[in-house]
Design brief:
The chain is mainly alpha-helical. 77% of the residues lie in helices and 0% in strands. It has a domain at 63-190: Four Helix Bundle (Hemerythrin (Met), subunit A) (Up-down Bundle). Helix 1 (14-46) runs antiparallel to helix 4 and helix 2 packs antiparallel against helix 5 (164-190).
């Protein structure tokens, strides 16, 4: 005799799709900013103009932020894996660690921008740098708020493997945050 028990309906992945479209829009925005930045920098360097004053951009803070963001990508993957396996304790830990690393990244970047000591209107280079880095800080802050809401939901007992799309959508966004910072790190902090 065949088993006639009904199975749970498959939930539509509309939240992940919407997050993908929103993240795609943010990536397009940053693609435009990077295009402007690299184009103007290439023109300035072709004319022999100094892009940033000597010693204004240091490598250590940007590298530390990159390490923090790389580890946060791992903890975000841990959160997705934990939610899929209904491992609530590890999901709490992973979401909290990812949010804390995002807060640490915002703190380090804010300190670094204050430490650079370049006014925003010094040149096109500083204006574009502040726009790109400031936009990324907003993106990280939105991600941290999203993770905080997911953590509150998980602590409320509502985030199980049946509702994994919430964490998957946040992970998609967080991985985009990491990818954009990798371009900032290489294109602005290292290449100057």
């Amino acid at each position: 005799m065949a088993d006639m028990t009904p199975t749970a309906p498959t939930r539509p992945r509309s939240l992940v799709v919407a997050s993908a479209f929103g993240t795609g829009a943010v990536l397009a925005y940053f693609g435009g900013l990077f295009g402007i930045y690299f184009s103007i920098r290439a023109d300035a360097m072709a004319w022999g103009t100094q892009w940033f004053p000597e010693g204004a951009i240091e490598l250590a803070p940007g590298g530390m932020n990159m390490a923090t963001m790389a580890v946060s990508a791992i903890t975000m993957g841990w959160a997705v894996h934990s939610v899929l396996k209904d491992d609530r304790v590890h999901a709490y830990l992973a979401l909290a660690l990812t949010a804390v690393m995002g807060i640490a990244m915002v703190n380090q970047t804010a300190f670094y921008i204050a430490d650079i000591g370049l006014p925003i209107d010094t040149s096109q280079a500083t204006t574009l740098m502040f726009v790109i880095v400031g936009s990324h800080l907003v993106m990280v802050s939105v991600g941290v708020l999203w993770l905080g809401l997911l953590l509150l939901r998980a602590l409320g007992g509502q985030d199980t493997s049946r509702h994994r799309d919430l964490v998957s959508a946040a992970a998609l966004y967080w991985y985009a945050v990491n990818a954009i910072y990798a371009v900032i790190w290489v294109g602005i902090y290292i290449a100057k």
